[in-house]
Request: fold
Amino acid sequence: MNRRDALKTIGVMLGTALTPSLAQAMEAGYVTPAAGEPLRAFTPPQSELVATLAELIIPATDTPGARAARVDAFIDGLLVDIFPYEERQRFLVGLADVDERARAATGKPFLSNAPEKRLALLSALEEESRHAPPGSQPFFPWLKELTLTGYYTSEIGASQELKYVHIAGYYDGDVPYAQVGRAYS
Amino acid sequence: MERPSVHIARPPEVYDAIVVGSGIAGGWAAKELCEKGMKTLVLERGRMVEHRKDYITEHQPPWGFPNRNRLNEDMLAEHFFIQRRTGFLGEENLHFFFKDSDSRYIEEKPFTWVRGRQVGGKSLMWGRYCFRYSDLDFEANAREGVGTDWPIRYADIAPWYSYVEKFAGISGEKLGLPHLPDGEFQKPIPLNVVETELRQRIEKNYPERHLTIARAAVLTEPIGDRLPCHYCGPCWRGCSTGSYFSSQASTLPAATATGNMTLRPDSVVHSVIFDRKKGRATGVRVVDAHTKEMREYHARVVFLCGSTLGSTQVLLNSEIGRTSDELGHNLMDHHFKVGAYGQMDGYDEHYYYGNRPIGFYVPRYRNISAATKMPDFVRGYGIEGDAGRPSWGRGNDIPGFGVELKKKLHDPAPWQVWMTGFGETLPRHENHVTLDPERVDEFGVPLLRIDCSWGPNELNMRKDMASSMAEMLERCGLGNVHSYDDNKPGGIGAEPGLGIHETGTARMGRRPEVSVLNAHNQVWDAPNVFVTDGASLASSPCQNPSITFMALTARAADFAVGEMKRGNL
Reply:
């Protein structure tokens, strides 16, 4: 059932015609930039690095991963629209540091490394963040948090990987888990 | 109508009644006064919000918000520095919250004043829980010698509870408890499987404790064109089907239907105009929120329903309400953000369907009988909570990343039960508000100075709340039980105001020397002025207060119109 059909069904179910503005609001989903469209905070190499790191955190499996969900565009939007200037700079510094570390360990920037090497570099970054002194703001947990939020609130993460119930229509406090089979987003 | 020249002062418009505020209390005053034939002017400082049309984020999926419900940090710090403390603000609902930079107040001690900024007030974003007070509550001040005696008892207000409940639509379960009286309920929304199990275990372990689905202004049966809840989840974005009580869905349409209501948004009430010779209010002074032009409106009666501190600010800026030293004093709230949580094992094969708009409630079980008397605090608390299965948000606490993490987050966590108490706050004279002698806001209204803190009774109660809830969950067989208390003395965490159940500061009482209002919410020294919102309360029973605002307002409106007909007003 596509969204337009769903809207009609909901209208029938509620026994009321949806107001035009309501229907518009439901139709007007945010469209993340298509692949290749320029982002606002990131340069193309930066967005590629973010998309790659995010995909390592939430990879494609039988459902698409963070890259397909455009987590890079989500984070780009946060850097421009949401974070204070200092936070934005801190994120970009953290990103550059990923490359620094890659160079120190392998002599090459992160993206020039083979997939298994990238995994090892990110694992090392996570491991190090676990021993970060209290009060410091290590980059990995921050990137992970943003990746999880960006992915699981995207249409892919929320409704393909997890279960999204838009307008339930009723409440049932006990259904077999097997019947749902995945977490609600 | 001809538009008068700006150079000529406009004569005041004259009405039968003026209602200040359009939220839960104001909407009820408007409906009742209009239905009784009064030509009524409703003044609202915020903008117009039209039912359905202006619920601009309703039914948006998470990905429908450009920044997935996050807001610009600098903007929040500059304009919503108080409202943001609630943790509620997002792209989904920012348009319903007061812009703190528009009208500041001064915190002598931390006090979070949460305000709506529109027609409908906080009725658009409220929690919707509705519980009656009982005589255990109305008699408490007199029994303990605290504050002043309520001038009414349960019998005075019970018929008005019934009256407002039938119109508002309250779903819930009758329990037959004397201290949490049953009302006119629609069929209850169900508990989920784990809550049902917890209810049975609580009843087995504690004869005086109960767990029930919250009684709430959420429909399970239609009322007129308002439809039963469709379980979409985020009520606070507005509800096009009118499935929860709001001024927009309920009272204002009723008032409009009479043809007697004039609704003026963007109208900031400055003060009540008082005729000293007659001992009566003539009307109110209003500042246009955009032009800043001041003008007068006259009426035979004035209902102040501008929220607890909003109404009191108007009184303080007027000449009335001064028969005692109590105007501005005895500010109360519910203290909360203290409780416990734990895990219920054995239910991993169970899940639920639908985004239920409410949780469960455990009625007060302290100081309700000789056997439940507590040694170090009076009054008590009710518990709000729910059982659910955490989803992807817990991912940040799970180490690692990649396929393994994604796999773990594919399934929900085991069931968790979460509880927070809402505790009664004693009326204390020292918790008070005054007008700043020098600073005024952009409408020329002196800034409010708020000086309020928790007292020993609240702090002692909090210790019991945390330990008692943790003990209850453990005895009921939950694992991994933890208690918490977010209060940071002198700081932000569970400070007064955050409960958004602020009450008092223009209390009802039996004598003018000890109170601001009489038993009918009439200002003692200005009998054609009524204050029927939270400001009027003489104590702060732990039940969520809005249904009592509704009942007091309907009762006072009935009395006011009766007095007008009898020629007394």
User: Anything to note?
Assistant: Residues 392 and 409 of chain B are 5 Å apart (CA to CA). The longest strand of chain B covers residues 294-304. Chain B touches chain A through 64 residues (CB under 8 Å). The longest helix of chain B spans residues 456-475.
